[in-house]
UniProtKB/TrEMBL annotation:
Keywords: NAD, Oxidoreductase, Tricarboxylic acid cycle. This is Malate dehydrogenase. Belongs to the LDH/MDH superfamily. MDH type 2 family. The lineage of its organism: Bacteria, Pseudomonadati, Pseudomonadota, Betaproteobacteria, Burkholderiales. Residues 5-154 form the Lactate/malate dehydrogenase N-terminal domain. It comes from the Bacteria. Transmembrane segments: none annotated. It catalyses: (S)-malate + NAD(+) = oxaloacetate + NADH + H(+). It comes from Variovorax defluvii. Residues 159-320 form the Lactate/malate dehydrogenase C-terminal domain. InterPro entries: L-lactate/malate_DH, Lactate/malate_DH_C, Lactate/malate_DH_N, Lactate_DH/Glyco_Ohase_4_C, Malate_DH_type2, NAD(P)-bd_dom_sf. The active site is at H189 (proton acceptor). Gene3D superfamilies: Lactate dehydrogenase/glycoside hydrolase, family 4, C-terminal (3.90.110.10), NAD(P)-binding Rossmann-like Domain (3.40.50.720). Substrate binds at R94, R100, N133, R164. Catalyzes the reversible oxidation of malate to oxaloacetate.
Length: 327
């Protein structure tokens, strides 16, 4: 049987953690033949560590055959030690009266420290997924704080936006969500993201032609996908944790095991393609194979798309400028 791999998860006692850990331990992320050791980081605070202990009791009680060990900790150097995968979920949420700049600064501190810890102790091939918001900028900070690790190892989660877009398109066309190909989401994980179905197909037929409604695209589809998180909070009284955890599983599974030629969306550091400046962590269409992602290049960007891409890029660059002095 395979040697266990080490999977670090931060914010492990949080909402997303609770929807995520059991699925990783059951083999849904890395395969039903891949044992895992979970290295779980929570803030050192007594209450958080106690909650983490409770989650671990439940993990034990699932008796997952693939769960080869669990290491709870309050120390990033322990959590990331030899980590093959790191899911950075824990982040500082916006508190009452907190300005955007305060939020960026609080998270910059967390992701600088975690980037440095990854740099020091993680596997040189560690695959990092940042889920905690602002996810793209947090991933950028972690990447910049880990100069000895390859830049390409740092990614941010746009997959929830991608999956939300797919579900809206399935509902609109009456087709199966699993049959949608070549969908992507450009930019920031925020309401400025640009979900783009111009290239998408279902059974080889153009989704754009099937829908043939630019007003629906601009006035219904994009706002619905962009504000979906807020709509779920409004309905449920809690944020979208299960679908976020599911998207994290999808992102990591496809990165590790391949997407079989299918386009998926990942927030990755730009190398300058599509006019996105180098290092900006941007949602792009990629395919994945042999543990590597590859950008889908050469797509035509029309005027409407360029405007949307410029807007989400501007937001990311403003966020980057807001943390520049902290790096
Ligand atoms: P939560 O508040 O339930 O859990 C977060 C956990 O992280 C808490 O237990 C907290 O103690 C822990 N934490 C905070 N700072 C930490 C640190 N420095 N090290 C380790 N642990 C730390 O929040 P939830 O619902 O689990 O969401 C987590 C994050 O994911 C939030 O930032 C949320 O905005 C983001 N999110 C991102 C999505 C995406 O698509 N990229 C989708 C949904 C949520």
């Amino acid at each position: 049987s395979k040697k266990p791999v080490r999977v670090a998860v931060t914010g492990a006692a949080g909402q997303i953690g609770y929807a995520l850990l059991f699925r990783i331990a059951s083999g849904e992320m890395l395969g039903k033949d891949q044992p895992v050791i979970l290295q779980l980081l929570e803030i050192p605070d007594e209450k958080a560590q106690k909650a983490l202990k409770g989650v671990i009791m439940e993990l034990e009680d699932c008796a997952f055959p693939l769960l080869a060990g669990v290491i709870p900790t309050g120390d990033p150097l322990v959590a990331f030690k030899d980590a093959d995968y790191a899911l950075l979920v824990g982040a500082r949420p916006r508190g009452p009266g907190m300005e955007r700049a305060d939020l960026l600064a609080a998270n910059a501190q967390i992701f600088t420290a975690q980037g440095k810890a990854l740099d020091q102790v993680a596997s040189r091939n560690v695959k990092v997924l940042v889920v905690g918001n602002p996810a793209n900028t947090n991933a950028y900070i972690a990447m910049k704080s880990a100069p000895s690790l390859p830049r390409k190892n740092f990614t941010a989660m746009l997959r929830l936006d991608h999956n939300r877009a797919a579900s809206q398109i399935a509902a609109k066309t009456g087709k199966a969500v699993g049959d949608i190909e070549k969908l992507t989401v450009w930019g920031n994980h925020s309401p400025t993201m640009y979900a783009d179905y111009r290239f998408a197909t279902i059974d080889g037929k153009s989704v754009k032609d099937m829908i043939n409604d630019q007003v629906w695209n601009a006035d219904t589809f994009l706002p619905t996908v962009g504000k979906r998180g807020a709509a779920i909070i409004e309905a449920r009284g809690l944020s979208s944790a299960a679908s976020a955890a599911n998207a994290a599983i999808d992102h990591m599974r496809d990165w590790a095991l391949g997407s079989n030629g299918k386009w998926v969306t990942m927030g990755i550091p730009s190398d300058g393609q599509y006019g996105i400046p180098k290092d900006v962590i941007f949602g792009f269409p990629v395919t994945t194979e042999n543990g590597e992602y590859k950008l889908v290049e050469g797509l035509e960007i029309d005027e409407f798309s360029q405007e949307r891409i410029n807007k989400t890029l501007k937001e990311l660059q403003d966020e980057q400028a807001g943390v520049a002095h902290l790096l």
